[in-house]
Write a structure and sequence with these properties.
By secondary structure, the protein is α/β, with parallel strands linked by helices. The protein is built from 16 helices and 15 strands. β2 and β3 form a beta hairpin. α5 packs across α8, α6 runs antiparallel to α7 and α9 packs across α16. The N terminus is likely disordered.
Length: about 450
């Protein structure tokens, strides 16, 4: 290797993107899940935090006391107008900063990029309608100001990024990506590129969503009434049955027939390796490469069951530098939907061969299908598995379907020594996203 090539390799190593902190605000069994150990204790034991009240749902149940304990110095003039999405996103960011050894109160994030993934709008509706329905003739001046502040903070998908940027007083890039359940996974890719190009040394990536449980309950009632007429309305690519939320989600299980939603947030702190080393940070692992594709279908709600574009995303992600044979574990994006399982199975069969023994698990059954947080949660979970040499089981999978991979059924981890892993995330009718992760020393 000539000296010029060595210089580029050295620079690439310094600018590689490493993960130094993770934080959460997710449903738990007795109280919310906040830390890496909290998440691990749930996922490693295949536990489900979903509760049934007509439909299964993962509720965070974050109290005001819990919020104040972690963020006691937020000005009340703003915080009393926070939605659940604001609170979840701020708490998960605060926990990730604590895990990374970064004090945003002391200016550690003053030059950081703040990137947020948002999929749903449920948390924004109340503020939106409060302003829309307000009567200017009877609303007092103080009431009008309160409504204005609430609306400015909450009626756009940029809601969480606004308050995170203000709390950290960051003067770096701050923006939101919205592409459904792939939103924070896409932001992980943006963060990696920003670090590689020298645009930022620290990037805070948060995925946060709130699905209104009353909306889901009403959708369930509507779908029960519509099922009888569905066959005559169904178009190519649509499933045989309308979705149901009334039974327990079971990714990769032969009995899988539904999705259960959840709410919450997950945050990942990413840094350049040089910056992390300079401050002596603990490194969970690396984000080595990312890639996105789309099925290219005209139906905005359909997915290509062949998994062809997921295969393309993986191959672009690996490029000429890495081989699929080096990747013994994949963190799947299955939400219990048999269509998702079908295209994942076909993609794995194409990538690894039909007799593959690759391990592929999903922890969506632990906390519910929570939309935008899935990308950050998948990265965090996978790096924790890599670090601990244990693959977490697929929650609620007890009777595996006929699959070209091992979903690790049951409630125990599987030992695995691995330096590379892939994580998958999808948007309905949209993005297929693949992320290649590596251990701290993987090349």
């Amino acid at each position: 290797m000539n000296r010029e090539a060595e210089k580029f390799e050295e620079r690439d190593a310094r600018r590689s993107a490493v993960v130094t902190g993770v934080g959460f605000c997710l449903p738990g069994q007795a109280e919310p899940v906040f830390t890496a150990d909290d998440v691990w204790n749930i996922a490693a034991n295949g536990q489900s935090c979903l509760q049934r009240n007509e439909v299964y749902y993962g509720s965070v149940e974050l109290t005001q006391e819990m919020f104040d304990e972690r963020l006691p110095d937020v000005p009340p003039f703003f915080s009393r107008h926070y939605t659940s999405a604001h609170r979840f996103g701020l708490v998960s960011m605060a926990e990730a900063c604590l895990d990374a050894g970064l004090s945003f109160r002391d200016g550690a994030l003053s030059e950081a990029a703040i990137l947020v993934g948002r999929g749903g709008v449920d948390a924004n509706i109340e503020s939106y309608f409060s302003v829309l329905r307000a009567d200017p003739g009877t609303t007092t001046a103080p009431e009008a100001m309160e409504l204005f502040v609430a609306a400015q903070q909450a009626v756009t998908p940029s809601d969480v990024a606004l308050v995170q940027g203000a709390l950290t007083r960051s003067n770096g890039p701050c923006y939101t990506v919205s592409c459904g359940c792939a939103s924070s996974a896409v932001q992980i890719g943006n963060a990696r590129r920003m670090i590689a190009q020298g645009e930022a040394d620290i990037v805070v990536v948060t995925g946060v969503d709130v699905f209104d449980v009353h909306l889901i309950q009403n959708i369930q009632r509507l779908l029960f009434g519509a099922q009888g007429s569905y066959d005559s309305l169904r178009t190519p690519g649509m499933p045989d049955l309308l979705p149901s939320f009334s039974s327990l989600m079971r990714p990769y299980d032969r009995r899988a027939d539904c999705i259960n939603h959840g709410e919450g947030a997950a945050t990942v702190i990413m840094e350049s390796r040089e910056h992390a080393a300079r401050r002596g940070a603990h490194i969970y692992g690396q984000v080595l490469s990312t890639a996105m594709t789309r099925d290219g279908l005209a139906n905005p709600l359909a997915c290509d069951a062949t998994g062809a574009e997921l295969v393309t995303a993986v191959r672009r992600c690996l490029g000429d530098r890495w081989s699929i044979d080096d990747v013994p574990y994949v963190h799947g994006g299955s939400d219990g939907n048999v269509v998702v399982t079908a295209f994942e199975a076909n993609a794995i069969s194409e990538l690894y061969g039909p007799e593959s023994q690759v391990l592929m698990t999903s922890q969506e059954g632990c906390f519910g299908h929570n939309g935008a947080p899935a990308g950050c949660l998948g990265v965090a979970m996978t790096l924790m598995m890599m670090e601990r040499g244990q693959v977490c089981p697929t929650a609620n999978c007890e009777q595996p379907a006929d699959l070209p991979f091992d979903p690790v059924p049951g409630v125990r981890t599987r030992p695995l020594d691995f330096d590379y892993a892939l994580t998958f995330n999808y948007q309905v009718g949209g993005v297929k996203n693949a992320i290649l992760l590596g251990s701290p020393d993987a090349v």
